[in-house]
Amino acid sequence: MIQTLQKISRWLATYTSAFIIGIAIFAFFVPQSFSWVVGYTQTAILGIIMLTMGLTLTTQDFKILASRPFDIFIGSIAQYTIMPGIAWTLTQLFQLDESLAIGIILVGCCPGGVSSNIMSFLCKGDVAFSVGMTTASTIMAPFVTPFLVLLLADKTVNVDTIGMFINILIVTILPVMLGFLLNLRLGHKTYFPTIRSLMPGTSVICLACIVGGVIFNVHDLLISNGWTLFFLTFGVVFCHNSLGYIIGYIVGKLFHFGTAQNRTISIEVGMQNAGLATNLATNFFAASNPLAVVPCAISCAWHSISGTILAGLFMKFEKNQK
After folding, report:
1. Which of 69-73, 128-132, 248-252 is modeled with the greatest confidence?
2. How far are the Cα atoms of 154, 202, 219, 297 from residue 9, in angstroms, in the given order?
């Protein structure tokens, strides 16, 4: 039984994009199947995703933060300047209405995506650097994300920075620290590596549930506003994500990082924790700006897809060079 679950977990980690796309399509045609993924349930699911990340962290990962402060500092600064800056610029270029603008700004101001470490591993990036960047940006999120959203979006809306800070603390930092402490306390147990091997698949399933829940919430809005809204929003998400990858890679080159580090910082900067953005949009903006959830939902699916594609392109480029 355990071996079967491990195989399923590995399959989900390998084919994350296909699985997320399949769930998104299913949710669009059968939205009621994800009607339960709302409110505290959605928050709990996101907390489980962050818990799975915490279960992979060891004291060695935190030593990375101490031993490579310059690399982590550059990566974190890039994370919280490039993506928010691109998001705000795109809202101006595309003349997005208030709701869509809030959504893409939320995505831009969130920490690195929880599956970025997997993508770095797939493309032979610097996994230790990836974990260090994700950890650092997640730790910074309760302070930096509300401030950046307030800075970039408060011209049109009132941002509940205190509420957002508490929410991020509950759904990110606490589960990550709990996972780390469990790993620290139980990591030597013979059964614990088996539990940890199931975490990638668990994370993917939880992410799929969040995507399905968001599609349920915005389904009627998408239908009533037509395909124009979808393609406009997807175009903005695509530009935001792709420019993040490109500029992130350029930052690595500017600071003379190695090939593995360049790939990692590209993925870390471009892939956002869109699940967290979705949760924040639902809890703080859905009532007054219901369409704010749409860019977050599309980002949830697309970042996993594009991350897999980029990792494959990196590997193909390396193979061609050899």
Report:
1. 248-252
2. 41, 7, 29, 23
